[in-house]
Write a structure and sequence with these properties.
48% of the residues lie in helices and 20% in strands. By secondary structure, the protein is α/β, with parallel strands linked by helices.
Length: 325
């Protein structure tokens, strides 16, 4: 598929090819008739211009014209979008550590499964990726600024602890500020790279900045937010009862706010209800964020196609008419 042309003005040369095609059709329809009028002797005309299989002549001519048209496209230097591995990127992992992450609907519990999956995800990232970590519950804070020291990030992930509250909006805001500080320093050193945020949560914002209020901030910064809604509708945690003992509190997953956050910021929303599904999501994220699209010239393909058409046309002409053209 052609997405762009480096020298699109050369495509105007296709008008010349069209003119040649029109001239050929006109000659085929009227040229021989005018030539025939000059001869009253039909037998003499057959000797001077013997009839041949017209369709063969048209096939050869058509192939030559098609080859010219293809060659014109090649000269215009067509480009197509190709996916290539991203050499550098800045990722902020924002992981929910609210009390609901203690639910055991995911074995052994949501937080532990999220920690293991995040550690595995980082293991498979390119070494030059800068990875940072934000934890959020009742507030959000940066535990590790973006760094290529992936082991440091993994150690911090394994030390995450549960706290009250869920501040998704604040988590995005803190992640954006951390990225902005890092990017400013990177630009000074000529080492800037595209950035993205990955938010993993099982609920919706209960404190701080509303999730929706973080959307314009991410859009203004040009940083997509990829979200993972982790857990099942049947999640339950056990809390001390008001009158002693324990009580079960339902903590169903709430994917809708995260889906809207991803959609409106140019990211993508995922859901996972098990550790295996979460690992699969991280694999997809690795492929999506670890690749980028760029334009690549494919003029050589059109040149090769045009050359092949010329060879076929010349071969058929030699076979059928004992001449190249």
């Amino acid at each position: 598929n052609v997405s762009n042309f480096v020298s699109p003005l050369w495509l105007l040369a296709e008008l010349v090819v069209v003119a040649l095609a029109v001239a050929y059709v006109a000659w085929s329809l009227f040229g021989r008739q005018r030539f025939a009028v000059r001869f009253s002797n039909v037998e003499l005309l057959d000797k001077v211009a013997p009839s041949r299989a017209g369709w063969r002549r048209h096939v050869v001519s058509g192939l030559f014209l098609l080859a010219l048209a293809v060659m014109v496209v090649a000269v215009a230097r067509p480009q197509t979008e190709v996916t290539v591995p991203t050499e550098k990127a800045t990722l902020m992992l924002a992981i929910d550590t609210s009390l609901s992450m203690e639910a055991t609907d995911v074995d052994p519990n949501r937080l532990k499964a999220a920690q293991d999956a995040a550690v595995n995800f980082i293991d498979n990232l390119p070494e030059k990726f800068n990875v940072g970590l934000v934890e959020f519950a009742g507030s959000a804070q940066t535990l590790v600024p973006p760094t290529t020291d992936h082991t440091r990030v993994q150690r911090s992930i394994n030390k995450l602890e549960l706290r009250e509250g869920t501040a998704i909006g604040d988590a995005v805001d803190v992640s954006l500020k951390t990225i902005a500080d890092f990017t400013a320093d990177a630009e000074l050193s000529g080492d800037s790279a595209p950035a993205a945020i990955i938010v993993l949560s099982d609920g919706e914002t209960t404190v701080g900045r509303p999730t929706a209020d973080a959307i314009p901030l991410a859009k203004e910064a040009g940083v997509p937010v990829w979200t993972i809604s982790f857990g099942t509708p049947d999640g339950v945690i056990t809390m001390p009862g008001e009158f002693g003992g324990e009580q079960a509190i339902p903590v169903p997953v709430a994917p809708e706010p995260l889906e809207q956050l991803a959609k409106d910021t140019g990211g993508q929303a995922y859901t996972a209800e098990s550790a295996n599904q979460l690992n699969d999501v991280y694999k997809e994220l690795g492929s999506a964020i670890g690749d980028e699209t760029e334009l690549s010239e494919i003029g050589w393909r059109w040149t090769l196609a045009g050359f092949a058409l010329l060879v076929v046309a010349g071969g058929l002409s030699t076979w059928w008419f004992r001449r190249m053209i």
